[in-house]
Specification:
- By secondary structure, the protein is an alpha/beta fold.
- It has 14 helices and 19 strands.
- Strands 1-2-8-7-6-5-4-3 form an eight-stranded antiparallel sheet. It has a seven-stranded mixed sheet with strand order 11-10-9-14-15-17-16, sandwiched between helices. It has a two-stranded parallel ribbon with strand order 12-13.
- The protein is elongated.
- The protein starts with 25 loop residues before the first strand and ends in a 7-residue tail after the last helix.
- Keywords: Cytoplasm, Methyltransferase, S-adenosyl-L-methionine, Transferase, tRNA processing.
- It catalyses: uridine(44) in tRNA(Ser) + S-adenosyl-L-methionine = 2'-O-methyluridine(44) in tRNA(Ser) + S-adenosyl-L-homocysteine + H(+).
- GO terms for molecular function: tRNA(Ser) (uridine(44)-2'-O-)-methyltransferase activity.
- Its EC number is 2.1.1.211.
Length: 633
């Protein structure tokens, strides 16, 4: 007979982690302040109980200092001018390092609260989204700590570099200083368990180990306002949420700015937005929302310009921009010998043409085409309109002539090296890395809807069939080796025992391969197994495009773009193991294999059909698509 499990024993592994308290802030404006600084009057606005320790509070505050956009949608980012945390000897930081900064960027000193020690100082500049509306603000951030007995106290002090309320920008609370206070007292485990059990019903927070509060130092002659109350609530709520999330083991799943640094991208985006945002929105002739399409394409243009800045020499300043197909191969490097000249771009499935327009106006030569002409094309200058064409793409691999006029289709062969863009190009998305391989080009693909290589709608798998077959072969090889070692090692096993070992190995390998190939490893407590992650169709589509790129020798990079779209993941192919070469007029890859032959075998393997049948289906769908009216994209 099994022994009954005591409910408290069932939670032994989680006993050291207090239950998450509800967010119940307390108005403290009529209570004595928790911040005491010499010759300063402070007002504590709100306080909330918490169960995260000082280490997590410091981590959360550092993240909020580095990413102020978390608490204000009016902000882009923070530029860090000074951080004493990077230097172990803080005494040197204030004398030898800070004095080299401009006066306006030097940290503003502050006496620590009584008994506290200064542990870190950061000077940041808050960068607004709209520099024409709001100005940047420099701010000093001090970290203080104190430990008395079993109580640990932490204070993070913000000092804006302003002299009067009129100098404070809209996105910052109109106060002289603000401070965040965290108090932590270790509670015996037995007391903590009793508190956890009573928390859901009674809501009592008296036995919780921690609390966090926000306080203001008001300007002389000013009083509290409703806006200041709302701001305090927003700030303390964010700290509480992030702190409790960190305690529960939260890990960020989406990582931005992996290819292009945030500052470079946002600065370029702000410049392009100021130049083209209002103009394009005012001229919008489609029925769709310009607020989405215009600023989405401005964001993509900013990313591409910064990506190309890393890859190529600056483009030649020429006006009007030349048509790519008429470019001379002897294009000059614009005085830059360390990087190749910009090879031009082609936007396949260019839609409304905004991206092509912006890139051309920024002196990047290129062109775009789409199966359907858009009304938006008519609002662009003549030099841009000449580089927008209504065509359907019939890959040369199909080697078939469609029934449409030859001027209305393109075979997908571009000048070697042409940078290929597919932005929500749907049917052309899986073909993007293959076209880049065939043209010895780099590419970017921003997937949207899932289509296979014949143009049919389908749910893309996480990897190509070729890659899946290779994984299966590798799995069988490992299993065979493991099984052989068991037999050769002289272990005496019964037949059923050997079979059980192999089945267990297969199960383990299957679980491992599925986790690594489709589901990212997810951490969590052993006492509470988490449900398996359901991978979205969009996530598997992006993985599939990356797998196709890998199949033709690219080293794909993925970047989540800062654009107003849920379909915001890009796959960039700018590096190959070895680029294809020319031999006897034919293009061959690094293995000496015919490029078109390799692509054909890959396409046939994916669809399990011959290339002729695939080509017929592609052409039929393309011709049907060309007859549909154009949309806003």
């Amino acid at each position: 007979m099994a022994n009954p499990t005591h409910p408290r024993k069932a939670n032994d592994e989680r006993a050291s982690e207090p239950k998450k308290p509800p967010f119940q802030p307390i108005d403290c404006k009529t209570s004595p302040p928790v911040i005491h600084l010499p010759n300063e009057l402070w007002l504590t606005i709100l306080q909330a109980p918490c169960t995260f320790p000082p280490s997590i509070f410091a981590k959360v505050m550092l993240n909020l200092i580095q990413n102020p956009n978390i608490t204000s949608s009016h902000l882009f980012r923070a530029d860090i001018f000074y951080d004493s945390g990077e230097h172990p000897d803080r005494r040197l930081s204030s004398t030898d390092l800070a004095r080299h900064l401009k006066a306006e960027y030097r940290p503003i000193a502050s006496e620590p609260p009584q008994g506290f020690e200064l542990t870190r100082t950061i000077v940041r500049q808050l960068v607004p989204r709209n520099a024409q509306l709001d100005k940047a603000l420099v701010q000093t951030c001090h970290f203080f700590q104190r430990a008395v007995g079993d109580v640990e106290e932490s204070v993070v002090l913000y000092i804006p570099h302003v002299r009067s309320p009129g100098d404070v920008p809209f996105y910052h609370p109109e106060v002289a200083k603000l401070a965040f206070y965290h108090c932590w007292r270790e509670i015996p485990e037995s007391t903590r368990l009793e508190s956890d059990e009573s928390l859901p019903d009674s809501g009592s927070n008296e036995s919780l180990p921690g609390s966090v509060s926000v306080s203001y130092n008001l300007f002389d002659g000013t009083t509290m306002t409703t806006k200041l109350d709302r701001t305090a609530l927003r700030l303390i709520q964010t700290i509480h949420k992030h702190g409790q999330g960190q305690l529960a083991g939260y890990e960020k799943r989406v990582h931005l700015d992996q290819i292009i640094p945030q500052k470079r991208y946002q600065d370029t985006y702000a410049t392009l937005k100021a130049k083209y945002g209002k103009q394009l929105s005012d001229q919008w002739v489609e029925v769709t929302d310009p607020g989405k399409h215009v600023f989405e394409d401005i964001g993509i243009a900013a990313f591409l310009i910064e990506l190309w800045r890393d890859m190529y020499a600056p483009p030649t300043q020429s006006s009007p921009p030349p048509q790519l197909e008429e470019q001379n191969d002897e294009q000059q490097q614009d005085g830059n010998d360390t990087k190749p000249p910009f090879p031009g771009f082609v936007d396949i499935g260019c839609g409304n043409g905004i991206l092509v327009h912006i890139l051309l106006m920024e002196n990047y030569p290129g062109w775009g085409f789409d199966a359907r002409k858009r009304k938006t094309w008519s609002i662009f200058p003549e030099t841009v309109q000449k580089n927008l064409h209504q065509r359907i793409l019939i890959p040369s691999l199909f080697n078939q002539t469609p029934t449409l006029n030859t001027e209305t289709y393109h075979n997908g062969i571009f000048p070697p090296g042409t940078f290929i863009i597919s932005n929500h190009a749907d049917e052309l998305t899986p073909w993007t890395p293959l076209l880049a391989y065939m043209n010895q080009s780099a590419f970017i693909a921003i997937p949207c809807c899932s289509h296979d290589l014949s143009g049919a709608r389908f749910r893309a798998p996480a990897m190509t069939k070729v890659a899946k077959a290779a994984l299966k072969a590798q799995r069988n090889h490992v299993l065979d080796e493991s099984f052989s070692r068991g037999v050769v090692g002289g272990e005496e096993k019964k037949k059923n025992g050997q079979l059980g070992l192999k089945q267990a190995s297969e199960t383990t390998w299957k679980q491992t391969s599925e986790t690594t190939s489709e589901n990212p490893t997810k951490t969590g407590t052993l006492s509470k197994p988490q449900k398996p992650i359901v991978i979205s169709a969009y996530a598997t589509l992006c993985s599939y495009v990356s797998s196709l790129a890998t199949a033709v020798g690219f080293e794909p990079e993925e970047e989540v773009l800062r654009i107003p779209s849920t379909r915001n993941k890009s796959i960039v192919g700018r590096r190959r193991v070895q680029a294809p070469q020319q031999k006897d007029g034919d293009s061959i890859d690094e293995e000496g294999e015919d490029v078109l032959g390799l692509v054909q075998r890959l396409v046939e393997a994916e669809l399990e059909r011959d290339i002729e049948g695939i080509g017929r289906d592609w052409i039929a769908r393309a011709e049907k698509l060309a007859k549909k009216p154009g949309s806003g994209h």
